[in-house]
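Deadline looming. Please check this record:
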Amino acid sequence: QVQLVESGGGLVQAGGSLRLSCAASGRTLSMYPMGWFRQAPGKEREFVAAMRWSFGNTLYADSVKGRFTISRDNAKNTVNLQMNSLKPEDTAVYYCAAGGSFGTRWLDYDYWGQGTQVTVSS
């Protein structure tokens, strides 16, 4: 079992930055592909970014490419999402996920955090 806890969300103005972190307990995150998803009110959960820990491969949604960066901190057993040039449409609850497949579907992931709210004001 893996327990995931996100942190770092908050309120920021458009053009600003936030850094989300996902801390794990129970297992080392290097065992799993990791992903970030988000869900805005009234919308489906959508893929944001993913990382295959051992190979360093990354995937990004087109909507965040060039603005968001997923990274890992082996010593802290965390996965981070650096979000720059934030837009109001980035407003959502952001979820960290760990799972058996390196992919963009929420079904690829088995373990989920509780989510952290990101609100971008215009």
Summary: DSSP finds no helices and eleven strands in the chain.
